[in-house]
């Protein structure tokens, strides 16, 4: 019986998979930066967190192009890509929003909905990719907005941080609903999540 070689899983990674891991690394780095901001109050760490999301998008774009260029893709690579996207474009933007001041109970529910929508959207994509590709190596369109569109939300949060509109100064203030706090700005995440799980068709470029 042949025993698997040490680190055999790592040995099986394609070049594109390493770029996918770069995506995940950026997402985790963004989470750490928000934690540092919450500990120190230094806004520069929010800037770092926001900057790491477009960096993650660069890795996300490159991994797909490299896979097509080298004509090497796998089910594992697709799953890696989805898991990395959940971190970088789902969890990280939600945590950045929390760091910016969306910390009320209703805010947390909306942010949780946003992340759950992103997870659901990626799961749906994975199980329908084969049928949507119509026999080619690339799907013709997305159902629902892709989760990397959350970069737009991160840009909004970066501008808010740059203008000092975080915490108590968050744009549109806060309202009380049922005794719990809702920051209206968080509704952007509700809209984004709803679009991700919608059935609208978006051509894939």
Write the layout of secondary structure elements.
Blueprint: H1 8-11, H2 15-40, H3 44-70, H4 75-100, H5 105-133, E1 141-143, H6 151-162, E2 175-177, E3 180-182, H7 187-196, E4 201-203
Antiparallel strand pairs: 1-4, 2-3
Helix pairs in contact: 2-3, 2-4, 3-4, 3-6, 4-5, 4-6, 5-7
Explain the overall architecture.
This is CDP-diacylglycerol--serine O-phosphatidyltransferase. One of its GO terms (cellular component) is cytoplasm. Pathway: Lipid metabolism. By secondary structure, this protein is mostly helical. It has helices spanning 8-11, 15-40, 44-70, 75-100, 105-133, 151-162, 187-196, and strands at 141-143, 175-177, 180-182, 201-203. Strand 2 and strand 3 form a beta hairpin. Helix 4 (75-100) packs parallel to helix 6. The model has no long low-confidence stretch (mean pLDDT 86).
By DSSP, the count of extended strands is 4
How confident overall, as mean pLDDT? 86
Distance between the termini: 47 Å
Helix content: 55-70%
The ordered H/E elements are HHHHHEHEEHE
Portion of residues in beta strands equals 5-15%
Q: Quickly name the level 1 CATH class.
A: Mainly Alpha
Corresponding CATH superfamily: CDP-alcohol phosphotransferase transmembrane (TM) domain
| Uncertain ranges | none
Going by helix content, strand content and strand pairing, the class is mainly alpha
Strand count, sense and barrel status of the largest sheet are:
2 strands, antiparallel
At CATH level 3, the topology is Four Helix Bundle (Hemerythrin (Met), subunit A)
- CATH architecture level-2 label: Up-down Bundle
GO molecular function, one term: phosphotransferase activity, for other substituted phosphate groups
Pfam family, one: CDP-OH_P_transf
Transmembrane segments: 21-39, 45-62, 83-99, 144-165, 177-197
Keywords: Endoplasmic reticulum, Lipid biosynthesis, Lipid metabolism, Membrane, Phospholipid biosynthesis, Phospholipid metabolism, Transferase, Transmembrane, Transmembrane helix
